[in-house]
Amino acid sequence: MAMCLFIPFSVLPIRRRWYEIFLIGHIVLAILAIVGSYWHIVHLYKHQSGFDLFIYSTMGIWGFDRLMRMARATKNGVKRAYVSKVDDEYIRVDIPGVEGHGYCFAYFPTLSWRPWENHPFSIINYTRNLPDEEGSSTPASCSGTESPSSPGAASLQSSFEKSVAVRTKVPGHIATRNRRDGGISMFMRVQNGMTKKLARMAGVVTGIPVLVEGSYGHEGNTFLQGHDSKFAPSLKYPNTLCIAGGAGISAVMPALGQCLSIYGRKGSTKLYWGLRSRELVDAVESSIVGPDGETANWGEIETHISVGSRLNVRRILEEELDQVSAGTTVIVCGPLAMCDEVRYTVAALARHGKVVRLVEESLPW
């Protein structure tokens, strides 16, 4: 019975609306399934058939997974998370002293009576990118030209490192600590549950305790994965086209960083970002939009911003893929409807001979 309940308790509407119920329900059902199976075998076979060995191995694997997750969550120690309000819809959470990529699971043990709760969030690295003083901004850099001190690829890397400069106010002591220790930043859309509680902590100077488990995804750095990122441009796919909706920009940022590779400079790199609030643009990157238009060059990345109107995904894909001869990696992260439309369009274009591959970073969990 417990195993059967896994399916209805794991459907998307429950995960989206009652993530906390899904999380604790998943753990409780797993324990009930293992314990129930063990006593079922003991009752039928009295430890004589060897079937109980399968249960022992299951207990070991599941227990090892939980222990490793606890170890990964505690390896960085208890850090402080600083919440700032972007607008009425989004918040930003800065965690100094943590390194990561892709996404992580964040535990905020003091926000509720359920300290085991954790939520997945996409990571933006902002090491050394926060302002020196309260309310100031890191100077914007839209130019892709070489700097006198660091020619070639170094200037592109410098341009990308400036890409997460912010206009939101950050207390000076937090900025100083971040520049010294490094850290990660996460942008969240405020909904019910944990994000709503986090929004109430916006502006708290002392921050709140947080444990960070991870990071996961984006960069292959294990024995099985090797060392190649799925985002990195290659000889066959030198072009990169990123399509983001709202806070989905945080998931495609690693792709933009990978485009600074040797192959990325041989192809084109473009970003299309649709969102409802201009404040989120200012919070993510102060130089992503030019002062007199909605498009600008971010290093070698051509950027198109659409504020308050939906992106015409089909037209974008058709026009962009018609302009290139080599292969293109399409990366999308945003609402389900946007991801579905991109996936259908890419599949249709691939059937008609376009050399294209798709990487989908889904926001819903």
Automatic annotation (TrEMBL):
Superkingdom of origin: Eukaryota
Region named Disordered: 132-155
A molecular function (GO) term: ferric-chelate reductase activity
Gene Ontology BP annotations: copper ion import; intracellular iron ion homeostasis; iron ion transport
Cellular component GO terms held in the UniProt record: plasma membrane
Keyword Transport annotated: yes
Keyword field: Membrane, Transmembrane, Transmembrane helix, Transport
Coiled coil residues, start to end: none
Spans through the membrane: 21-41
InterPro entries tied to this protein: Ferric/Cupric_Reductase, FNR_nucleotide-bd
Residue ranges, compositional bias (Polar residues): 136-155
Identification of the protein by name: Uncharacterized protein
